[in-house]
Amino acid sequence: MAYRQIGSRNHKRENYLPNYSYFCAIFKQSIMKRVVVGLSGGVDSSVAAYLLQQQGYEVIGLFMKNWHDDSVTISNECPWLEDSNDALLVAEKLGIPFQTVDLSEQYKEKIVDYMFSEYEKGRTPNPDVLCNREIKFDVFMKIALSLGADYVATGHYCRKGEIEVDGNPVYQLLAGVDNNKDQSYFLCQLSQEQLAKALFPIGELTKPEVREIAAQMELVTADKKDSQGLCFIGKVRLPEFLQQKLQPKDGLIFEVDANQKIYSTPKPEAASLQEELAFEAAPINYKPEMGKVVGKHQGAHYFTTGQRKGLNVGGTAEALFVIATDVTTNTIYTGQGSHHPGLFKKALFVNQPEVHWIRQDLALKSGETMKVKARIRYRQELQQAVLHQFDNGLYVSFNEAQSAITEGQFVAWYLENELVGSGVIS
From the DSSP assignment, how many helices (H) and strands (E) are in the chain? Predict the structure, then answer.
């Protein structure tokens, strides 16, 4: 349609040559290509759909309904019904087909049940990373492909690259241009097969630019606040959410002094690099006699390393932070202040079955190392680190000690602006 409009204008063609050439290039790439966009009801996916439409793709919008139980969802914090209505309004504005797909059964099985299991073990899962791997780019992608889609697109602030290795195409997961919004971390578990079918239309834009486009198009989502909480569910009351399966259980909160002798334990003479790294990564085995009782809680499985809120303990000079939990004894150990030595470690370990390389051509063999930049949580500044691969797994050794390395979370590692691999912290 745009091709005919350009060709039919009663003006000199050279005045429109740059746009004409650009359009032809895009047209050749995307003609007859069908893209299913995961319309979340937010501004990012709305603009993603619009940009793809402008590039000549046939766009279909699908909204994922992942949850039925509204009793644990905070109603004024992005409920799914409001989101689905906004997604519908965007689809109508753009003139694209729209449908809601109910993935609640798959979401419960692949995400919620896994979350309960991890919290019960005293680990802290990341549902957003899992949702991308197991739902958006697996279950949802299969539905999209069954509709004849060539690609699945989302409103993530990241980019996709393509290079050739040994004559074969290799796909890259690149950080978004907007450093304040880069979301490559949330996609750290994607595979080459998933990336091959993925598109990230807003990765070259900043958030203000995305909102400006939405405003110009008068999309209902232009000024909508960013959603918080679980992927495509909204913000939940986590204690109530967990209490559906994990029952409250009274336990004690201990405070461990920063001068406790456990923190001055000398590093043992290591016979090997692997033993030295194992010492650096090992969690401290806290005992009640190392601290003093400062309060009570209703379940160690509701808390995570580095947590400050929810302890309900006052009277300390500095705020208390969780430095460890023990679900076996139902005990929480805390320390005063964000610089408490119990919060910091210089290394972490990923069991071999949980080491994942997006760039499989770069995967380390046992005994090999790689200098990288890594992060252990979303929005953390990238940290200088070294990967050490052994038969049983991978150690990530940081130049600077890291706060609140949390079992069950994901560590992701980068070369320059490319996320090349990740793993579950053990």
Answer: 12, 18
